[in-house]
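hey so u asked for the seq, here:
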Amino acid sequence: MQFEVKSLAFEEILSNVLPAIPNKTTQPILTNFLFEISNGELVVSATNGEMTIKSKTEIFSTENISFCLPAKLLYDTIKNIGSDTLLKIELLDNQRLIIKANRGEYKFTYIDPVEYPKQLVSIEENFTEINGLYLKKLIQKTSFAAAPEDDTRIAMTGLLFDFEPGILKVVATNGHLLGKYEKAVESVDFTGQYIIPARAAEALQKVLTDKIVRIYFLQGSIKFVIGNYELISRLINAKYPDYNSVIPKETKYELLVNSNNLKTALKRLLIYTTGDTKKVILSIQENKIILKAYNDLISAEGSEEVDCTYSNTPFDISFNGSNLEKVISSFDNDDIVIKMNSPEKTVLIKSVNDVQGEDFLILTVPIRLNK
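ran it, C-alpha cells below
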C-alpha cells in the first residue's frame, strides 16, 4: 500500500508525539512510533508507559494497517527535508517502507506492533474545557517551581490542578519555591485535586494555542484533547502539601519595584555568586534596594542599586540569586509588590496589576544571612 502526506504537516505530527518517547527503557518497542491507518485516517502515537500522545491526520488510503518505525531516526529524517514537500510513503510486502521526497529516498524496516502496549479504556469521572492560551499561561508561570523528577517527595514533582466550581488553580512547589496561578473558568462545575507529572505538563504546553482544550478525568489518569491531538498521562497518586497554609495572610513590610529592573540587576550580579546557594543580599532602604554579591574565592564583589517604593524600617535579606531571578522573570516586566515579615520568613511576591479573574503569586524562602 502507499499514501501521501505533506512533509511539514508530517513533521508537526511527529514533533507533537515525540515527547512521549522515553530516553531510556527496558522495552525497545517503546523507542518507536506506532502508526495506525484505518478508514482514511493516519494516527501516530508514542508512549513511555506513563504518558501516551496521539496525533492524527486524514490521508487517502483504502487499506487498514498498523506498524512501528524508529522514532528518532524518522523524525530527524523528516525534519531535515526542509521545504514543504509531498512525501510518498510505500509499504512493501517484506516489511520494508520507502519514503520518497523530491530526489531523496529513505528506506526503513517497519516492525509488527504486536508487542506495542495497548491503551486501556477508562471510565470518565469528570470533564471540563478551557482556552489553550489560558492553560498555557497557568503552566508556564508555575512549572519552574516543581521539584525534579528524582525527588523523593513524589507529589512535588508534579503540578497540582486544583478545581473548584468556576475556578482552576495550578500550583507547583519544591519546598523552597511555590507558584500558584488561579483562573476563573466557568465550565468547571466540580471539586477535585489532580497531580500531573511535570513532563506531561511540559509536553502539553508546547502544543497549546488559542484552541479549546477538552480535559477528561479518568480513573488514575487525565486526558487532554485539542483538535487532532491527544495526551493521556497517569496522575501522581500522592497527597499534595496544603499550599494554602504556607501563604502569609498578613505581612509587615511591603515594597513596590519594577520586575525588569530587578531582574536585570540580578543577572549582572549572578556571575559574582558562588556555590549552590548563589547568595545575593538585598539591602532594603528607603525607596531603594542595594543588591550585593560576593565571590570569596577570588575576592571579588558586585553591587547594584534599584529604585523602589518603600518607607518602612531598613533591613537586609538574602536569597538564592538563581531562584530569585527565575521568580522575578515570571512577572513579564510588570511592577511587583514584595511582601515580607522578617529576613528569615517566607516572602510573597505578586504583580501590582493582576488581570480580572486571575490571581498569580509566588512564594520564596530566604537563606540565612551570615552574621
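The first strand starts at residue 2 and ends at 6. Residues 78 and 169 are 39 Å apart (CA to CA).
lmk if thats what u needed
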